[in-house]
Amino acid sequence: MLRKIVDKIQSSVQGISTPKVFSDYQTKGYIDSDKISLESVKENLVWFRRCSDLTTEQAEYLQALVQAIESNYPVQAYQLFTLYRYFQPSTSIDFIDLSALEESVLASVKIGVAVITYNRLKRLQGNIKNIHAFSNKNTLVVVADDGSQDGTKDWCDENSVACISHDNAGVVANKNRALYYLHEIEQCDVSILLEDDCRPIEQYWDAKWALTALAWGHVNFAHKRVIDTSKLIKGRGEIYSPFISKAVTGQCTATSLEAFKKVGYLNPIFQGYGCGHVEWTQRFIAQGFNGLTHNDASFPCINIGLLSEDAPTHKSEDDIQRNQALKKSLKSKQGYIYPWQTEQDKAPFIDAINSVFKGKKLNRFSISQARDFSDVELNKNFFFIHIPKTAGTSFRKALEDKFTVLGDYGENTKHTASLIKQVIYQEKSPLALKKQMKSIQNTWISGHVGSIKYSDLVSVRHIVTFVREPVEQVISHFNHAVTHHGFKGTIEQFLKRPSASNFQRNNLKPIPISLIGYVGLTDRYDESLALINGYYCIDLDIKSVNVNRKKTIKKEGISASLKKQIIEQNKQDIECVKEVNFLHKQRIALTQENKQWVYSHFKVNPNNVLIGCAYYSHSEKPVEIEVMLNGEVIETIVADRFYDAFAKVNFPRERYIGIRRSLAKHCKKGDKVEVFAKETGQQLTFKPLVIKK
Hints:
five-stranded parallel beta sheet, Rossmann fold, single chain
């Protein structure tokens, strides 16, 4: 019977490539949830979305698939379940606990709401009040103000409401600012654009709109003009059965990150009023995020939890006619579209986004360059080198609240992820883990491991760690060993362990400190976390966990000779922390000036050749550097040569970040060489490089 079901599933949808059916289901009658990859799940999702109906056999397989993946992939399970309800609206759903599944989905995603406004402060105030009253407490809220002259920005700043406010540029530009902030700065999984004349009136309206967006990719507001009898095609206006209409309005729009990555922004070619929103939605439909309409002239929409209060618009007939003509000239199926038309438009767009950081204290710093979903990083995954007793547990816990974290704390510890245990410790196949990491996003590997173990799985710009003043770190490590690991010896005996000598720097070798994505300071944890949040556009909370209250000894209580011994044994760690302090101060200064950070590493070899590399934190353009000899500039060099050092490290620009320049004709023994980034003035050498011959 099972073989027949599989055969029918494989042949039921003509012209559509059938996804691989899992062997466990074929042979055993069930699906082994531990062996389903996210890639396989997504293949099934694409296939089911393209079905015009479900056979009984397909429905049975879909039920089994939802049950098998609900724990590991709740969002995809919900998407597949939505398709089941769409095709089978009257059948039993007792095979799944829907409330638990929805709760799991909402716990794993970040929802952002942007209120779109222009010179309507009173409406905005009422809207914000309702959003706070009826939304989930974790939903992020920002105002996108298109250059209002009625005090909108001042009111937002006074009431601690994040506000993007810039010169008036029209509704398309304003919505694009909101989308950029929600998806790029705040890393939201669902963006809800809410115009100020449409307000929430029901509890958890945002959750319902988010679930609908996750299910269908992109959904619009069902205005009463949209769902009258002449324009309504079908549907009940529910999550599982959205209205399908011949018309669409932009008063509220919800979009999943999955769909946004395929389609991008409203087309900036449309200036002023008209066509931008319709053309944007048609691009989602063309990409398959269509509520199963299969027709780019019909649109999925809902009106759950919202009340429309139509306000006077700022439209002009000239804008409408011009935009209609532009729309006719566009290709019917366009790919990802950026929020700017040319490179020259990028800088003013980013300036507009940065307005959100002015006048309001946020736990992040502003950005200086646009990032997009086509950046050249290997992926959006990260590696946290958790050096013991440096506040790493607090950081890991903050990560676990926001991201999937794959721990590696040894083969037999509870903090090590099952995937790591299986692939690294049992199968001993780091290549398999690397392939797995390519299929997932926004995942952190975290562990008491050296940098070299996982440095090839993520971009070097995505490696993070913390360091601590060495004497404090060693003493804290000793206290932890006594309290939690049964160490019975004295501090003097502990100092004979390898972990008591330059343990921090040894964990980071061979990667130079100045090339690691971010090295934070334990004693400046809040500042470090703010910089991390800003650099990576995330929103980690400050936590304080794993603090040892039962200290055997304290730093203040050790003798001068013991302190001297610890210092003597940890000279590399001391130098490491000094360099991190130097980098930390520079980062703060450059961030306050809204300048990009440059990663770099240089040395002068015995033949007096300057060798090194440099690359920007958020840009792929080559870095131009100035070489100074004894305080005077002698060379200006572009860092665009192939860099062959540190083979297991993933550098940007496909490693074309290097320099190699002979200084022999310029220098003599004892001369001092320093390097600076020409564009930003950043000092790229921690200490002068001294010519030795």
